[in-house]
Amino acid sequence: MADVVLTAESMTSGYNGVAAVSDVNLTVSAGEVVSILGSNGAGKTTTLLTLAGLLPAMGGQVTALGAPVDHRRPYRMARRGIRLVPDDRGLFSTMTVRDHFRLARSTADRAREELVLDRFPALARLQSRTVGLLSGGEQQMLAIAVALLAEPRILMVDEMSLGLAPLVVEQMLPAIRDLARDENIAVVLVEQHVELALAVSDRALVLGHGRVVLEGSAAELLADRDRLEAAYFGAADSEAKQDRAV
Ligand SMILES: Nc1ncnc2c1ncn2[C@@H]1O[C@H](COP(=O)(O)OP(=O)(O)OP(=O)(O)O)[C@@H](O)[C@H]1O
């Protein structure tokens, strides 16, 4: 049986008591890549933050690595091996690449650092560069490298492709898939690049107005583009029609 490491059951969450996502069900196994897709405002980041324990669920249950996710103890979640790379990458712009590695050293030994640098050799050459002078792709590599130093069992990445050149995204997304397979990490991606995300994912779900409007294996979703587009754009279209009717 697949080693399920993350589950959401009827998960509802949002802000100031108002639900932004409702009734999300999800399971992710070790080594699997699952993408959360959907148009702007659909609820992707809210879902990811709730899965990571950074936002409280208003209803339902989230379980990670066999225990309920507890938003009141984010450090405990991190220690248990859950890492989120936020869409702003969570780096310090005036610190160097080496500083970021040093900061993470309490959780990483030298051998782990070598392994991570093998995956992103560009970072080895950029050790003394401050983050503010790195390209977007290099910053993204660093953000993921810092997360990997902690040997995560669940890695969540929010909009990895944000601000990156398409060619860089085409390199980085397969690197994430390889990571999941090689290190048996469960990966949850929030992505706007639907085709590229599906190309590296095992499964995906599409959110519309905070609800799951379509889900399936990446192969199934790619094989039925009409259905995928209807799910993806349907919510936005109906919203535009309502606006025009006013
Ligand atoms: N801090 C917040 N306070 C109140 N409402 C919020 C907050 N963050 C997001 N929202 C609202 O929750 C809904 C879902 O937002 P969310 O950021 O999860 O969507 P998304 O799918 O990630 O969007 P995008 O692709 O544009 O980043 C939106 O209506 C948004 O306005």
Automatic annotation (TrEMBL):
Keyword Nucleotide-binding: yes
Gene3D superfamilies: P-loop containing nucleotide triphosphate hydrolases
Entries under SMART domains matching the protein: AAA
Signal peptide residue numbers: none
One Pfam entry name: ABC_tran
Protein name in UniProt: Branched-chain amino acid ABC transporter ATPase component
Sample GO molecular function, one term: ATP hydrolysis activity
EC top class, as a word: hydrolase
Ranges where the ABC transporter domain occurs: 6-234
Record-listed E.C. numbers: 3.6.3.-
PROSITE patterns given in the database record: ABC_TRANSPORTER_1, ABC_TRANSPORTER_2
Naturally occurring in which organism (per UniProt): Rhodococcus coprophilus
GO BP annotations, alphabetical order: L-amino acid transport
